[in-house]
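Known limitations

Structure tokens in this collection are predictions and should be treated as such. Users comparing against experimental data should check residue numbering before alignment. To illustrate the layout, the record for Aldehyde dehydrogenase (NADP(+)) is reproduced below. The input appears on top and the generated tokens appear beneath it.
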Amino acid sequence: MIVSIDPSTGATVEVLDVPAEDLDRIGDRAHAAHRDLEAAGRPGRAAMLRAMAAALEDRRTALVAVADRETGLGRQRLNTELTRTAYQLGFFADVLDDGAYLEATIDQAGTTPMGPRPDLRRMLVPLGPVAVFGAANFPFAFSVPGGDTASALAAGCPVIAKVHPAHPATSLRSRDALLAGARAAGLHTDVVSLVYSDDTAARLVQHPDITAVGFTGSVRVGRLLADLAAARPAPIPFYGELGAVNAVVVGRAAARDRGAQIGDGLAASFMLGVGQFCTKPGIALIPSGTAGAALTQALTDRVAAAGAGIMLSERIAGAYADGAGRLLAAPGVDVLARGGDAPAEDLQGFQGFWGSPLLLRSRPDALDGPLLEECFGPALILVEYDTDDDALATLRRFGPALTVTVHADDEDRPAAARLLDHAHRTAGRVVWNGYPTGVAVTWAMHHGGPYPATTNALHTSVGAGAIRRWLRPVCFQDVPQDLLPDELRDEPSCGPVPRRVNGTLMLGG
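Generated tokens:
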């Protein structure tokens, strides 16, 4: 039995009767699904992903209603997120249609300066069943029907998803929609399965049927699971998006000329979704003196006017309260503004899980301990710098992150160039005159970064490149045409894909 909780009250609103978590049985069914996904080929998997997107759309009203009840994120936000989730399923269908992700390469037999060369043909093939851990803050886009699942299914890997306890009913109904889409496309095996308990989660990572893991969550849990994956008799890849402090640096001219505008945008960014975004700005470096005054005032006004927001779960609300307490107790920190308080208990004694926005200021020489760690929730620390050298030196005190953002005008260009040179070495995405919250699903997107932002900076969890996590290369030497994968045959039956043939890139075949 699994309970669904309304975070606005803390009350249980639904009890889910879920089947026993027999990993051996689930693994056997995932292997059967793996065979079906491979047999479907790229065209069949693309059709399946598009049918899954259609199934989510067909169930939109019910899915958004239950997700709002479990997360308090609001129907407008959740409708937008569901649109993104359906879009990325279709997007990975487009990736399959394109076929370049396969890295198909052919070196035909012939004579070389080193002697005769055999016929060699290489491409990427799916790993097998994979585990996906849903995130609390995105019940659709980074959960059971989200990008990890979409990219894995596109690769040909069935998914065993660990349901996040913050939204179990949403996860169950989303899985049902995905299976309905798969069946509409002619795939009747369990291409997506669910597990619920934390104990099963640890065993899932260690289970011999699992070939890779995708995870979005805290550093503590991510490291625990990553260590389990590495300690297996045959270690498997663990792709964890964990946590880090995303920095924003505002140039002197930008702050002087448009400080209020930047302050308004920064306030909206760090308070978006009650600060529960992995890309939330956690630190902002702004010029001291009059240049930064308008920016600081705009931030202060926006935060003071903001109310408390519903957080996703009791655990997350508690962690935010603890983290905010550590920030407030740190030496050299003062409070610039606080948002409104959480509402009082209702007549039934329910209060729910709430977080209030917090704007702090720290001296540069006081940056240490909790000030260098992610506080997941609506908290932002301002640090003032005197010179461009000071700004760069302060930025260097923060470790790798998912994002670094620079706001700069033409006068700021020389300093900005130095900031960008540092930023691209330590972050997975560098943002210019924008805000890091919001990650587009595109061919060029990279959502990752050096540890602790992720456990593997080589890969992304958003965008076309996400499919690469679930694939491995195989080289076929002198294998007859009829026994080769279709994409490596001289005349592929499913149509041409980009291939490198004898060293030359052939975009049409």
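For this record: The domain at 2-242+457-473+484-488 is CATH 3.40.605.10 (Aldehyde Dehydrogenase; Chain A, domain 1). The longest helix spans residues 23-58. Please report discrepancies through the issue tracker.
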